[in-house]
Design goal:
337 residues, alpha/beta, Rossmann fold, elongated, 13 helices
Length: 337
């Protein structure tokens, strides 16, 4: 007998174990798009999909879970996200409606993104994109790079990923700055990181790496005015959220030499459109882009769906999930069971 209906979307094609575990727990499973699909659901499509569901298991790129979507899901008890960020879910609406929202803060994920970030810094510093291009064409002694020793790296957001980045960078004998109004000074001191304001960080850093979460305050954080504060020899790295950067301003800044280069794993709207100014050929060698792949290794890809599954089943069984993003929703959620 099936107790609950679950919509599983943003899924991996070879994870029959997740489907089997849901079915064994008494779930009737409906399958949605694959994690690798490049299209997204519209709001109207999501409204139709959630109508009769007790739970939805989603991933980044499936579409925005708006108030309208959740109001259509009259039986909806939990939205289980297979990622850390939940910026594509209206948390206030979910809380008001008594719908639990969970995420998947997997330690391996943090470690992977931090390693990727350091790789991006090294790639920019060593001008690897141009170096590879020139070497293939026999253009010897044609590329210069940047020595990291005694340079300054500014870390915007000193959470789990930002902290790990700081730890990984210590052997390079760098000066580390951080802007994070929420981190206690003793945490920064333990990491040998100097806390400062954002303006000072941008002006003094040779590399700026973004690790802030998406909030109304951080959307557009790196805009034209702040890009102009940076050194013309500085580089920008973003493995956090695409919405943190004004992409048009960044493209202009790269073209006009406000900064030297940028490495991005994330973009506004997830997949950049063909007319995105950052895809311009004249800044090709100033940029390193990645398709939101900073943590797409076998270890993370295996464990993330398991954590998402655990969160979903806990909520369906009436247990408070371990990784609950909106605990304020618990009283209303309990009254709806």
């Amino acid at each position: 007998e099936k107790k609950w209906k679950v919509w599983l979307t943003g899924r991996d094609p070879d994870r029959e174990d997740i489907i089997e575990a849901l079915e064994a727990a008494g779930c009737e499973v409906s399958l949605g798009r694959l994690f690798t699909d490049t299209w997204r659901y519209t709001e109207a499509e999501l409204v139709e999909k959630v109508t009769d569901m007790d739970a939805i298991m989603i991933s980044t790129g499936d579409g925005n879970i708006t108030r309208r979507v959740m109001e259509a899901g009259k039986k909806l008890k939990v939205i289980s996200k297979r990622a850390i960020g939940v910026g594509d879910i209206d948390l206030s609406a979910a809380t008001e409606l008594g719908i639990l929202v969970t995420n998947a803060p997997l330690e391996l994920h943090y470690l992977s993104v931090a390693e990727f970030t350091v790789g991006a810094i090294l790639g920019l510093a060593n001008n690897l994109k141009l170096a590879d291009h020139n070497a293939r064409r026999g253009l010897w002694r044609s590329v210069s790079n940047t020595l990291l020793r005694h340079k300054t790296v500014g870390i915007v957001g000193l959470g789990r990923i930002g902290s790990r980045v700081a730890e990984l960078l210590h052997p390079f004998e760098l000066k580390l700055l951080s802007y994070d109004p929420y981190v206690p000074p003793e945490r920064a001191k333990a990491l040998e990181v100097e806390l400062t304001d954002l303006e000072t960080l941008l002006k003094e850093s040779d590399f700026v790496t973004l690790h802030a979460v998406e909030t109304p305050e951080t959307i557009g954080l790196i805009n034209e005015a702040r890009l102009r504060m940076m050194k013309p020899t500085a580089y920008l790295v973003n493995t956090a959220r695409g919405s943190l950067i004004d992409e048009a301003a960044l493209a202009q800044g790269l073209k006009e030499g406000w900064i030297a280069g940028a490495a991005l794993d994330v973009f506004r709207g997830e997949i950049p459109k063909a007319d995105n100014p950052l895809l311009s050929e004249d800044i090709y060698f100033n940029t390193i882009f990645s398709p939101h792949a900073a943590a797409l290794n076998p270890e993370v890809m295996w464990h993330l769906p398991l954590l998402q599954l655990e969160n979903c089943l806990s909520a369906l069984r009436g247990e408070v999930p371990q990784h609950l993003v909106n605990p304020e929703a618990i009283p209303k959620w309990q009254s709806r069971r």
